[in-house]
Amino acid sequence: MQLSREDLKRAYRLMFTIRAFEERVEKEFALGNIPGFSHVYLGQEASGVGVCFDLADDDYIGSTHRGHGHCIAKGVDVSGMMLEIMGKAGGVCGGKGGSMHIADISKGMLGANAIVGGSPPIAVGAALTQKLNKTGKVAVAFSGDGASNQGTTFEALNMAVVLKVPAIFIFENNGYGEHTAASYAVGAPSLAERVRSFGMPCEVVDGMDFFAVREAMGRALEHARAGKGPYALETMCKRFLGHFVGDPQAYRTPEELAEARAADALPRFRSAVTGASLLTDADLDEIEAEVLALVEASAVAAVAAPMPDPERALTRDVYIKYA
Amino acid sequence: MSKKTYLQAINEAMRQEMQRDPRVIVLGEDVAGGQQSSGEPGGVGSVFGQMKGLFHEFGPERVFDTPISESAIIGAAAGAALTGLRPVAEIMFVDFVGVCFDQIYNQIAKFRYMFGGRAKTPLVIRMPAGAGFRAAAQHSQTLHPLFTAVPGLKVVMPSNPYDAKGLLIQAIRDDDPVIYLESKFLFGMEGEVPDEPYRVPFGEANVAREGKDVTLVAFGAMVPRALAAAEALARDGIQAEVVDPRTTSPLDEDTILESVEKTGRLVVIDESPPRCSMASDIAGLVADQGFKFLKAPIKLVTCPHTPVPFAPSLEDAYLPTPERIAAAARAARAYA
Fold first, then answer.
1. What architecture is the B206-335 domain classified under in CATH?
2. B68, B69, B73, B75: CA torsion to nearest 10
3. CATH 3.40.50.970: which residues of chain B?
4. Which ipTM was obtained for this model?
5. What architecture is domain A5-240+249-313?
6. Is residue B312 within 8 angstroms of chain A, CB to CB?
7. Spatial contact of B70 and B89, defined as CB atoms under 8 Å apart
8. Is the dihedral of CA B222, B226, B227, B228 positive or negative?
């Protein structure tokens, strides 16, 4: 479980890539360069990166409408994502999916999902494949506290226990399902307690602490890979922005928003690793500069890139073969 | 070649495909039956016995019962298909699709397009469909228009044992998601079915009977009724052609239009309420592309715009009958 200097750099690079990417999305959205809506992952970086850190390309994840961070953490190409979010032909989905449907099966990313509660049943199936093919791999379903109330999620939790598949359910509890507080909408006294009642372990983890998330995920992986069935984590997160980019957030006080920012996982990571003399500020600054340059280049290229040609793309890929 | 029932044809197709391809698995409620019960496991094999014997032959890794959780059944099939298996999921009655429809129309049907052509979801969802069993409103629907309207799905409605086997084999080997609507009403129907595996391609209609005076287009359980009507019409000297498209998506438009070009008259028979049905769909197709062939108005023989009723007197009046079909054909013939 010991992390090398290279591991630590990779972790920071991933978290900072999500941070810089999402801040750029916010900016490009304001400039009118992003059609539709975007739900950004700002504030939750440590959760996604901690969960995905020890997964390989052939471990699978299913994501949510707030999926950019999961995609980056799982290794999806940042330039391809920026193109996709702007609806451009070169995007990872050819501009046909957009922000809420980014997928890259070759990276084990089974799709962001605009239907709340869409991914848990799919992850059960991906885990079933691993069990039947005895691959030793796992499937992870990311959900928010909102999706924890969906019937599809309940069905998936139960089915995973019944079929004893290597599925890991991550509930990123950022306190809000859209604009409604989790404390209101989750009827049970505790989200994790409710998950446990389905018959699997569920740990509550500080989702603003990369190290805590990664360690808990290590226990989940060990459990699932040992054939002991599903495992769950409730990662307690802070959502810096609203439900979508542009949400004025009248339902949150300025004090609460300031508290969320004060819990920022990135400075916390920085002080932990520099305090322990594992990395220097200069190491981290260098990573930040590289990432900012990458995101800048991705955004500039994406703005200039062409949209898909309807003649070629509109009716293509509905089917593999339609008689 | 030997005589088999529609039900046996489904079972044989399933067994032969599981022997051929280890990636094929079966999941659903009671598809094995009796897992962890006091009696014999695998004794059920689906409520109508469609999957009977598969649990014993292929074991609990490939044929397994699920909780009564249709969303998780279809979601699990979707996730398994995306990652390399070829699942055949069963929804016990098509009527139950409401509780898992998101996984069908928002997830599996859209993966390939949404993901820019980079996903493959080869799965089959088998669902018994249709009225005539006194099973009332929530166990008797067909719902094929619902699936046909969704881009990304293929929809199959076998009307006889030969097609039941060949279309299921094609469905399992197909790389796109397929909705396989098996007719409860036809489970006992006998016909010649080759012993070896074979495929019936999608989008190729079967001209079940040739005729020159009127075209009858029918799907699934309505095909035998259209054939019975054609027999009655023949006694009156009216030669009806019966076209069975076999699949509603893709739809063999050419064969329908060619038949109407020959006969000049069209009756569409559909086990469905009339609004947004295959009957109205095909009427629209022919009005749009075959108007010049028509000698008489298109006639639609459908169910009324009601739920499926329970009382035998009402259910019998609900379904299209050979008499109603023949009457519609005679009216078309009498017009011109």
1. 3-Layer(aba) Sandwich (3.40)
2. 180
3. 2-193
4. 0.93
5. 3-Layer(aba) Sandwich (3.40)
6. no
7. no
8. positive
User: pLDDT for B138-193, tens place per residue?
Assistant: 999 999 999 999 999 999 999 999 999 999 999 999 999 999 999 999 999 999 99
Smallest Cα–Cα separation from A98: which of A29, A190, A10, A50? Answer: A29
Helices B6-20, B161-173: axis angle to 10 degrees equals: 30
The answer to whether B191 contacts chain A (CB < 8 Å) is: no
Contact A163 B64 (CB under 8 A): yes
What is the secondary structure of B136-202 as a DSSP string? -TTS----HHHHHTSTT-EEE---SHHHHHHHHHHHHH-SS-EEEEEEGGGTT-EEEE-SS-----T
d(CA B164, CA B247): 11
Rounded to the nearest integer, the mean pLDDT of chain B is 97
Query: Cβ separation of A320 and B79 shorter than 8 Å?
Result: no
Residues of chain A in contact with residue B67, where contact means CB-CB under 8 angstroms, are: 155, 158-159, 162
| B240 has a pLDDT exceeding 90 | yes
The helix/strand/coil state of A225 is helix
Phi-psi region of B274 (alpha: psi -120 to 50; beta: other; left: phi over 0): alpha
Residues of B with active-site annotation: 139
Name the stretches of chain A with pLDDT < 50: none
What CATH code is assigned to B2-193?
3.40.50.970
Q: How close A264 gets to chain B, by Cα (Å)? A: 33
The two most distant CA atoms of chain B are separated, in Å, by: 67
Closest CA–CA distance from residue A146 to any residue of chain B (Å):
17
Among chain A residues, CA nearest to B247: A323
B83 interfaces chain A, CB cutoff of 8 Å: yes
Helices and strands per DSSP (H, E), number in chain B:
12, 14
Shortest Cα–Cα distance, A313 to chain B (Å): 9
| Global pTM value | 0.95
- Interchain CB distance below 8 Å, A152 and B120: no
Q: Residue B87's closest chain A neighbor by CA? A: A125
**What type of residue is A121?**
P
Predicted confidence (pLDDT) at residue B1 exceeds the cutoff of 80: no
Q: Which of residues 3-32 of B touch A (CB under 8 A)?
A: 25
Cβ contacts (< 8 Å) between A125 and chain B: which residues?
Answer: 75-83, 87
Measured CA to CA, the distance from residue A161 to residue A167 in angstroms comes to: 9
User: In this predicted model, what pLDDT tens digit does every residue of B74-99 receive, in sequence order?
Assistant: 999 999 999 999 999 999 999 999 99
- Is B176:B25 a contact under the CB 8 Å cutoff? no
Q: Which tokens belong to A282?
A: 């200069």
Domain boundaries, chain A: 5-240+249-313
pLDDT, position A109: 97
**Distance in angstroms (rounded) separating the CA atoms of residues A100 and B245:** 37
The kind and range of the H/E element at A28 are helix A5-30
Interchain CB distance below 8 Å, B25 and A132: yes
Q: Which two tokens stand for residue B1?
A: 């070649």
Task: Report the distance separating Cα A170 and Cα B140, nearest Å.
Answer: 39
Test mutation, A76, A77, A129, chain B, max B CBs within 10 A: A129
Nearest CA in chain A to B104: A118
pLDDT of residue A2: 83
* pLDDT for the residue A231: 98
